[in-house]
Each structure stands twice: as C-alpha cells, then as structure tokens.
Amino acid sequence: MKHETSPEPPAPLPIDYDTVHVVEAAHQAALVDELAHRGSRVVAIEGDLVMSAGRPGVAAWASNSWLAPAEYSLASINEAARTLKAIQRNWHGHHLAHFRRAELIAAKLPTIRFRPLAFPSMPPAAPLGAWSLVARDRMIVSPRCSRPFADGQPVFVEDRHGPPNRAYLKLWEALTLARHWPVAGQRCLDLGASPGGWSWVLAELGADVLAIDRAPLAPAIAHRANVHPQAGDAFAIDIDTTGPVDWVCSDLIAYPERLLALAHYWCRAAPRANVILTVKCQGTVDTDLIAAFYEIPGARLAHLSANKHELTFFRLADGGPAEAARWPADA
Ligand SMILES: C[S@@+](CC[C@H](N)C(=O)[O-])C[C@H]1O[C@@H](n2cnc3c(N)ncnc32)[C@H](O)[C@@H]1O
Fold it and tell me: Regarding the domain delimited by 168-315, which CATH topology (the fold level of the hierarchy) does it fall under?
C-alpha cells in the first residue's frame, strides 16, 4: 500500500535575523530597548513583528517570540500550504496583510481547535508554529515559538461570578505558564490583594492566603475560611511576621524601584518560595531598572497577555517558566 508522505519543504531564502518577536504597539519601544540591552540588533520591523539578530531567545516584552524563523518564497497558495505541512502539523497564522490569500492558505492546513483552558490545567504540549504572509509571495514561518498559545495568548474559561474583578486572569496566566500552582495547605502571601482577585485564585486552589492591603477585600473574599485579610502597608511586612510561606504573590501598585527591593527581599527571605510579582512600569520603561530584576538569581520576566504597562516577574523553584525571558538570553 502506498502511503502519502509530506514532501520536503523547499529551500528557505537567506535571512539576516534569528528571532521574530510579536509585540503590542504600546510596548515596541520597550522591546527595542530591551533587545539593544541584550546585545541583539533590530534588523527589521514589519507591523507588530520585530526581527532581531545577535542573541536569539525570548524577550520579556514580546507576547510571543518566534525562535526558529525561516522565509520562503511562494508561487501559489497551494505551495505555501504544502510548505507549512511539510514542516509540521500545527500552525497559527499571524496575519498583517494579504488577508484573503492568508485565509486561503490557512484553509488548506489541518484545523486546530483552540479550546479555552479550564484553570488549573497544563498548557497544550504540542508545538504550535507561527507563520505570516509578509508579502504576496513571501512568508515567514517558525515551527518553534516561545509560547504554546495562538499569538502567545491563552484563552481561559472565565469565571464571571467568583472573583471581584478581572485581575485573577493575570495570576491564572502566570500559574499556567509556571505549570504548577499552590496546593491545599500551602501558605501564600498576597501583597496588594484588594479587592481580592488573586486571593480568590489562591483560595480556590485550597491554599491558605495572607492577604495584605491598605484597602479592604471584597466581603465575599474576606469572609472565606482560608483567606486571612490584614490591613496595612505591604512593604512593612517581613518573614518574621508572616512565618514560612510557599508562594509570595504581589500585584502592588508601586514605583518599580520599590518593587525591585521587595522582590530582592522576598527571594532572599523565602529562598524556597515561588515568587510571582507584577512589575508596574511608569511612562518610558527604564531598561536598566528592568535589567536589575535579572540580577536576582533565578529571575525571569514576561509580558503576559493580561499585563498592561507592566511585566510579570517569576522566581520559581524549578527555574521556569521557559516562556519568560532570563538573563543571559537563552537560545
Ligand atoms: C492592582 S491592585 C491589586 C489587585 C489585586 N491583585 C486583585 O486581584 O484584586 C493594587 C493594590 O495595591 C495596593 N497597595 C498599593 N500600595 C500599597 C501598600 N504600600 N501597602 C498595601 N497595599 C498597597 C492598593 O491598595 C491596591 O489595592
């Protein structure tokens, strides 16, 4: 019996970049500064794609980094689809232009159902490539991307009743990338907890939550048996007052310098705890200051789809998540 085999992909065109970063327009300047800081050169910018050369790897401000880019010239829609299928099965098209043609190519690829994730659950394990038709007859493809979600953005089955606001999505996304989360009986510190979205996430997982804020928690969160609200200044709390903690989470609104000191303190004071902290940026991003976060051993930074003008800092016991940037840059 004759089996149908995918033909070999055609030879790629020569390119002068090693990574493509997808970035929101509002964060493009911060990404370009970050790349310069890492010793990467920006070679081209096409729409929301920034092509860089020098130090391949994940960039913190990117919503997805394409880690194995190649370009192909294509004579037809069929040829484009054949090329993608010859490389691998699962693709997500990132369309900047030539939308109709891109749709016709996409229609010839295997259908992937991006089912919303029910938290807590692991991200998809199958590799998801990205492609973009950057000209009518030229496409960039990358079978390897930093994040396993379409355009790097996980979609969750949302809970519209339990949490008091939508900030819970940021912690869901961070814990999903972390691939582990607090379990029943673990002790979590939630700094800047009001009105209680993050505390709700931690409490739902069965953890014991010490929730600190100057402002009160929503009553439905404050009254949960495993949530212990404490009114006061989160910067004045230390490990002697909290006792041992397994997770330190902070979504405090504060100057990044203060948050850097806070990250240093908790990473040192609780060396085995997992630390997840929002780094709020103000106006123009101070790349030197962001770089100082990487000096904390095990630090990683990522711009999550739920982040606004901010990054999420991770210091996890297992060194992850791989989707977040670390220093020196990882290939
Ligand atoms: C973005 S909100 C936190 C939202 C929260 N993570 C949630 O899911 O509902 C930031 C919080 O930081 C608190 N905050 C800012 N500075 C603080 C400080 N020095 N001590 C305690 N809380 C502070 C504010 O009162 C505010 O409630």
Answer: Rossmann fold (3.40.50)
pLDDT in tens, the chain (331 residues): 444 455 687 899 999 999 999 999 999 999 999 999 999 999 999 999 999 999 888 999 999 999 999 999 999 999 999 999 999 999 999 998 899 999 999 999 999 888 899 999 999 988 899 999 999 999 999 999 999 999 999 999 999 999 999 999 999 999 999 999 999 999 999 999 999 999 999 999 999 999 999 999 999 999 999 999 999 999 999 999 999 999 999 999 999 999 999 999 999 999 999 999 999 998 888 999 999 999 999 999 999 999 999 999 999 999 999 999 998 765 4
DSSP class of residue 56 equals -
| Residue bearing the CA closest to ligand 1, atom 8 | 197
Within 6 Å (CB) of ligand 1, which residues are found? Answer: 165, 167-168, 192-198, 212-215, 233-235, 251-254
Domain residue spans of the chain: 19-152, 168-315
- Using CA atoms, how far apart are residues 211 and 192, in angstroms rounded to an integer? 8
Distance CA 181, CA 150 (A): 23
Token look-up 């979590």 returns 188
